[in-house]
Amino acid sequence: MLRKVSCQDSGYDCKFVVQSENVDELVEMVQMHAEGTHDMQVSEAEVRSLAVDA
Asked: Is pTM, for the whole model, over 0.85?
């Protein structure tokens, strides 16, 4: 199932969106973006809770 995470859906003024059928890949991409762009750490559980059907 295709899942997505969007910074805007999470309340940030950022156009980052990632979609993947692989949740582990989704988690990795969101964590890399959060750390590199927003200088914040996001847990796997947090990413999974933010993911919605795409």
From this structure: yes
